[in-house]
Design brief:
5-stranded mixed β-barrel; 534 residues; mainly beta
Length: 534
């Protein structure tokens, strides 16, 4: 019998080589269609026929380089400085045929380097107009998408039991339990090092290039933390949240959610993960030294220690020895590194401490006609995120009871956040979500991304999307609630200041009858902001 060792060694070498390569030029979005042809079908409505094209999801995501290529990007989180919008969020709509849960999405503006290793991930987007003319523009940011692992309530979904109990089924929230802070997700002002599968998003031409799913996301927070140092004193510290997990979602995972013939294995052990960053708190004196504390979060089952070094100029280097310690691919790394200067309160910066209390949530319109609304609502204050449904479940169920299935429009909130804001920086208060309709009840009804354009594929699509019971009678697409967002900076009064926030723009695009409506002022969040250390 011939030995397979040389073949395995070759595969390992190719995989490692691909993982280490940096792009030397920009790609073009037209590459996403190479080898793929349109797949047209028609739907009959009374006596008329309407054509539609499903070739854009066969597959939805096409590797730009190869499945083994691990893209690396470093840069700052994109957002609108005026109000903090157009930033990280959970998508209100995702194709159910390749998702268990909705994606957490964030755009990264890549750092410029001499070799272009991060900016070269930005492709040229080619728009072809009906008259044949082309417009070409460079993509402005690298999208990062990763299934959120929470919020799925439909019965055919393998995540439903855990999710309805407020627990994560994986994705980018492994270990989450009801009422926990979601600590992993970036927000305004953060710097991110992310790694993962580099793909074309073919479902939205011209195809954008994105990292989808990520396998590691390290977020240096814009806002520091306040910690108890090793000498027992309180210190302000730069907070670096690091999360790594091979479970990217329905199409990229380790089989943790049961049999899935379409899932691709994620070789987390193909490499060690290493990056460096600068602390963003100023040094108290020339002689101050940098100290490190490490916190392990729920869901972390990584069996080895990370290697952390700190230099006098405030550079911290982190190495996670996945390959060298032969750690299994299905392990999860979830830790926070706090870096602080050993003198005074940890920094020469002026730090303002704020308390933010969410007090009321009012749904003016709930998009349901005589039926209960299935609300899914996420909030972000400062560094941290929460899933509002976690706080209003009944009988151990947060998605099929409480806010997850309700006629109720007014909700009293009691969520409190303490923020530490260096003078001159800002923090965000944000909320968004959706009301789950027909599409959400199909989440996890998976379609082979390599399916060919034949009668079987067209029948699958038609019986799912153009089904009166599954879609029309359940409201078709999920109803977007709209995003509300505001940023705050010093000074804010020492007495609590009451704010009310609501979506200011946007239109629901649901094709169902009577489902197109403006999002402005559809729901309202009330909260107070108070400067504590006056």
């Amino acid at each position: 019998m011939t030995s397979r060792f040389p073949l395995l060694l070759c595969v390992f070498f190719i995989s490692s080589h691909l993982s280490a390569q940096n792009l030397t030029s920009h790609h073009y979005s037209t590459e996403a269609d190479i080898g793929h042809t349109p797949c047209w079908d028609t739907i009959s409505i009374f006596t008329s026929k309407h054509p539609y094209e499903i070739g854009l999801i066969l597959p939805s995501w096409q590797p730009v380089i190869a499945d083994e290529y691990v893209a690396v990007v470093e840069g700052t989180v994109h957002y609108r400085p005026g109000d903090g919008s157009e930033c990280s969020h959970v998508s209100h709509e995702d194709l159910p045929f390749n998702h268990y849960t909705h994606d957490m999405c964030v755009d990264i503006v890549p750092d410029a380097t001499a070799d272009g290793r991060y900016t070269n991930l930005l492709p040229y987007l080619v728009t072809i107009h009906p008259d044949g003319k082309k417009d070409t523009a460079l993509q402005s940011a690298v999208g990062i998408e990763w299934e959120c692992g929470i919020g799925a309530a439909n019965r055919l979904n393998p995540c439903v039991k855990l999710n309805n109990a407020g627990k994560s089924c994986g994705g980018c929230t492994a270990g989450h339990e009801a009422k926990d802070i979601i600590w992993e997700w970036p927000t305004t002002g953060d710097w991110v090092h992310a790694e993962g599968l580099y793909v074309w998003d073919r479902g939205h031409p011209p195809a954008n290039a994105e990292i989808h799913p990520a396998r590691l996301m390290a977020t240096r927070r814009n806002l520091p933390a306040k910690i108890k140092a090793q000498d027992g004193t309180d210190k302000y510290a730069t907070r670096m949240d690091i999360y790594a997990n091979g479970d990217g979602g329905a199409m990229n995972n380790e089989g943790n959610n049961g049999p899935n013939p379409f899932a691709k294995h994620v070789k987390m052990s193909s490499k060690d993960y290493q990056f460096s960053y600068l602390v963003n708190l100023s040094k108290p004196s020339a002689t101050a030294t940098l100290k490190i504390l490490i916190e392990k979060h729920k869901g972390d089952n990584f069996p080895s220690d990370e290697i952390v070094s700190a230099s006098a100029d405030g550079t911290v280097t982190v190495s996670i020895p996945w390959q060298s310690m032969k750690v299994a691919d299905d392990r999860v790394y979830g830790r926070t590194i706090y870096a602080y200067w050993n003198e005074g309160n940890g920094t020469a910066d002026t730090i303002d401490e704020y308390k933010v209390d969410l007090t009321k949530l009012y749904f003016k319109k709930m998009s349901e006609l005589g039926d209960m609304a299935e609300m899914r609502v996420f909030a972000n204050v400062g560094n941290d995120w929460i899933f509002m449904n976690d706080f209003f479940g009944k009988g151990g169920k947060i998605l099929t009871r409480g806010m997850g299935e309700t006629f109720k429009k007014r909700w009293n909130l009691s969520n409190a956040f303490t923020l530490y804001v260096p003078r001159g920086r800002t923090f965000r208060v944000f909320m968004s979500g959706w009301e789950a309709d027909g599409v959400d009840f199909l989440m996890g009804k998976l379609l082979d991304p390599a399916a060919v354009c034949d009668k079987k594929t067209k029948r699958f699509f038609k019986k799912s999307f153009f089904n009166i019971r599954n879609m029309l009678l359940r409201g078709c697409e999920d109803d977007e609630l709209g995003e509300m967002s505001a940023v705050y900076r010093y000074p804010i009064g020492i007495d609590p200041v009451l704010f009310t926030l609501a979506p200011m723009s946007g239109v629901s695009g649901d094709p169902c009858p009577f489902s197109k409506y403006p999002l402005k002022n559809r729901y309202f969040l009330s909260y107070t902001v108070k400067l504590v250390n006056h």
